[in-house]
Amino acid sequence: MKLARIVITGIGLTAPNGNNLAEFRHNLLNGISGIDWMDVRYMGKWPAGLCKFDSYRHQKRKDVRIGTRAGSIAIYCAREALLDAKVNLDTRDRSRIGIYLGITEHGNVETENEVYNISLFNHDTKFWTHHHNPRTVANSPAGEVSLNLGITGPAYTIGAACAASNLGLIHATQMLRLGEVDFSLAGGVSESPQSFGIFAGFKSQNALAYHEDPKKASRPFDKTRNGIVISEGGCIYALERLDDALARRAKIYGEVAGYCVNSDAIDYVLPNSKRQAECVQYALANAHMTVNDIDIVNTHTTSTPQGDIQECQAIASVFRERKEPAAINNTKSFIGHAMGAAGALELAGNLPSFNDLVAHPTINVDELDPQCDIPGLVLSQPRPLKKVDSILNNSFGMLGINSTLIIKRYNA
């Protein structure tokens, strides 16, 4: 059976260093980090990535107060994606639109805040908000988007740790191909820095980044890297079948070529390079591509000592037979780890390469770790490329979930 071709026709995002694709891309090409100090409850100041989007651009003040931070991020990104795609919902059957958003975790922020609030009143639960339950259900961010836009089709979240936003795009592709929906809003969101628990958790694992200059705290591949910079953000794509996009003369950013999702089944936290390599290999097979067809590889590497080495080993093993090295970069060095939004944001940062033929760099690599020294790394400065026809995007998560998504240049 011939599968429908699925294309990207709109992008809405907010990252610690940009609130739209043009601003985000400019800052990636010019080495501008979005990491700064954050005062974390009970823990003091730590490097973190916070977004500065206008939450009232697409929401009323009451809705922002009642809803969640993740919901506001999702609404902003979804609305911006629709504007970018030039889609007017009033001319659409809203029951045929799907919303598929990846998340790492949800509800922690709201629960922590409420427990803290009632601690100020001798833990009297009469001070506990009656908005707590709808705020903390796992489908909240997607549900808030559906309420804001009046979309009556399927709207739910996909929990897949830090691989989640790749899975949002993969799931949307599958649902469009099955004919379950005619248009989708897909990607991922995260409000992680609002939770002190995630800072405390990574600190207890000796995996929380620290540097006297917060903008240098996220340093994948660097010999002195010491952990993850926790960030928030969101990126939502408008996805549709190619025939529908062509019929309305839509702008096309790229086409979904292939993907894979697999699991390590080995450890709660530690990654496995063999399973990661298999995920990349299966995605290539799914796309009917070889390593020689890939021009840019965006790595998941998070600045953890072992995690970066494992992924570099996986990439090296898969791409060792390539004729010339692919350009290999990392976006977390600019924005930290946006958890459930990471994969979608990192893909967005690379999509403009189809037009400008430039790979954005990895920053903050002052001394390359010899165990991360693999062919093709783009460090410190952007790299002009002869061609960019395909981008491979890795996102891996706790409990051993791996995802690889390949986007190719659209050709008629």
Account of the 3D structure:
By secondary structure, this protein is α/β, with parallel strands linked by helices. The protein has 2 domains: 6-247, Peroxisomal Thiolase, Chain A, domain 1 (3-Layer(aba) Sandwich), CATH 3.40.47; 258-408, Peroxisomal Thiolase, Chain A, domain 1 (3-Layer(aba) Sandwich). It is built from 14 helices and 15 strands. The chain has helices spanning 21-29, 61-66, 69-85, 108-119, 132-136, 140-149, 164-178, 196-204, 242-247, 273-286, 305-319, 332-335, 342-350, 353-356; strands at residues 6-14, 35-40, 44-49, 97-103, 155-159, 183-190, 230-231, 233-241, 254-263, 296-298, 327-329, 358-359, 383-384, 390-397, 401-408. The chain has a 10-stranded mixed sheet with strand order 5-4-6-8-1-9-15-14-10-11, with helices on both faces. A 3-stranded mixed sheet has the order 2-3-7, covered by helices on one side. A two-stranded antiparallel sheet has the order 12-13. Helix 3 packs across helix 6 (140-149) and helix 10 packs across helix 11 (305-319). It is globular and about 65 Å long.
What's the SSE pattern? EHEEHHEHHHEHEHEEHEHEHEHHHEEEE
Global outline: globular
Full CATH superfamily name of the largest domain? Thiolase/Chalcone synthase
Q: How many domains would you count in the coordinates? A: 2
Residues in β-strands, percent: 15-25%
- Rg is 20 Å
CATH architecture of the largest domain: 3-Layer(aba) Sandwich
Q: Based on DSSP secondary structure assignment, what is the total number of beta strands?
A: 15
Q: Determine the mean pLDDT.
A: 97
Alpha-carbon distance between the two ends: 20 Å
The assigned structural class equals alpha/beta
The CATH topology of the largest domain is what? Peroxisomal Thiolase, Chain A, domain 1
Reported for the largest beta sheet, the result is: 10 strands, mixed
Side-by-side strand order of the widest sheet: 5-4-6-8-1-9-15-14-10-11
Please work out how many helical segments DSSP would assign: 14
Kindly state the percentage of residues in helix: 25-40%
Q: Give the CATH level 1 class of the largest domain.
A: Alpha Beta
User: Segments where pLDDT lies below 50 for 5+ residues?
Assistant: none
